[in-house]
Predict the structure of Phenylacetate-CoA oxygenase subunit PaaA.
Amino acid sequence: PESALEEQFHATIARKDRIEPRDWMPEAYRRTLVRQVAQHAHSEIIGMQPEGAWIGRAPSLRRKAILLAKVQDEAGHGLYLYSAAETLGVSRAELTELLVTGRQKYSSIFNYPTLSYADVGTIGWLVDGAAICNQVPLCRTSYGPYGRAMIRICKEESFHQRQGYELLRTMMRGTDAQRAMVQESVDRFWWPSLMMFGPPDDASPHTARSMAWGVKTHTNDELRQRFVDMTVPQAEALGVTLPDPDLAWNEQRGSYDFGQPDWDELWAVVAGDGPCNAQRLAHRTRAWREGAWVREAALAYAERERAEHEE
Ligand code: FAQ
């Protein structure tokens, strides 16, 4: 009976054990995971665009090799995550259709433009830094395939973060113009990076249920705080200023106090109204449509092979 299965599901969650693809799960749990894992996968794939735009303009062969490797890793992350989503009974093609028709989301951060090479460093340092804060706890999420995908992704994200920091450190040791370029870039990316963690807890419709199911293990605000605490000393070591006048060490809490991002801006970007939403989606849609013949040819070939073997 379904109630026994449901009991088993809740017991597994309570033990902090994993739910696996063949286990019974409530339909709402499955839907939550499809939503989050698909959004996460789409973010990795759309996230290739802002940095990918600089591959042809990298300042040296070494920087170009590093950037190429990073952007390729992001394609890989997208593929592991689509595979994790497929274990929930949806296909990658279906999910991509939902993305390109605007019915599924991807992270707000990738709707901001990359205006200088310093942005490659800032994205590595702040955006990958935020991604790590959010994703390390997700290695212990309750759904097995998602948690296991996260382990490898986090290892690669740490490399991404280090390369960003190293790029910025090199620029900060350079000329005044290079230092100004880094500061200008950090000024643009700081607040959008804080928004990556989602709305404040009291405005987050999904957090409570996702925490009860062990899909999320920390709230949006908890992870945002962890990110700020980790990043402030790094900013000091770099010699850049974070553009928040309210940023101050709070002795009592043992954490930094900080200002609030502009939440109206987050909602506008999430609703499709950010600086680059139209461009990002148009680019993804074009690539998806132009690749249709490859998918069709591969399918036709596989079917012909199968038919020949059956004869
Ligand atoms: N952007 O109730 P909540 C990367 C939506 S890192 C867009 O708080 P939840 C690596 C949310 O989906 C980026 N939408 O939702 C990389 C929901 O909408 P819905 C990807 C946002 O799920 C680095 C609604 O608002 N990482 O790609 C955002 O409990 C460099 C209500 O929000 C992940 O996806 C936002 N910032 O918490 C790649 C991490 N915030 O579905 C390339 C996994 C909220 O009801 C270069 N995901 N929304 O229509 C998560 O941890 C969670 O899903 C949150 C949101 C924390 C993002």
Observations:
- The first helix runs from residue 2 to 14.
